[in-house]
Give the backbone structure.
Amino acid sequence: MKWILTYIAALSVAWPALADTLIVCNKYEGTVSFIDLERGVEAARERTGLSPHEVALSPDGTRAVVVSYLEDGYVGQELNVFDVATAELVKTIPIDPHLAPHGIAWIGDSPNVLVTTEETRDVIKVDTQSGQVVGSVATDQDGSHLLALSPDAKRAYITNRGSDTVSFIDVDQMRLLDTVKADRGPEAADVSPDGAELWVGNNQSENIIVFDPQSMERLGSIEVGFLPIRVKFHPDGQTVAVADLRGDRVVAYDAETHEQLAAVDLAPVGAKGPASLLFSPDGAFLYTGAQDGSQVVEIDARTWTLARVFDAGEGADGLAISPVQVKP
């Protein structure tokens, strides 16, 4: 097991004095890293299914559900459930005939997760306790990849990157409400904390569309001029972080004016291909996984400066933070 490389960008940086665990999906090696943020070490790295791109955390932080997606010669058809405290794989949930699970989110306080299954062009609801698929709805769109939930978990928004569309569904009834056009290559999606805006990043047209989540009308667009692989609202809703996959940086925008506030260059720490974003619950820090290496970068979201870098596995991607301390 590799130890954590700690990079200090500024001596005055205040690191989180919490016993939180950062969970990292290492999609190129089929593992999950459990990083103890208080001690700054990778406490465990465990095997999971192939191509683990995304992860969802239970409301109490005790369970992490990891997808097993898609790669050359392999089409995933399972979810893997880990106990955060022990870093142990406690359950594998088969989802066949639904194939290639990717986007995933926990549905409120229920035991259920919502998952896009890209190869079969649908979205499924899975009971993590019973291990059963309890609902499904077809998008009938190509490349149903990522999803974002409304704050009340009543609606889900699915980016269909092969069809250049966004679908939205009623989560309770598992019913397709509508599908609207995006621009070219929609992938990233996030809903503002107040539920008033949906931001969708378009990879090929290199812009972000702002939708009204209720009507799905366009409220505006931001011409970012780079591939915005992920977008993530700050918990206070005032700032949006965008991952510039090819530029090896994270860019912050004012949520209201759409003006660029800061750009954090990851080159000084050698982090390549930022492909995931996650704010700490208090909003003090932003984490990004560098998929073209084996690192997770911690950014101070108060000053938009580099704080620490953690070693993880190859293809560090999907992230989650649990308040449970890992003790494998």
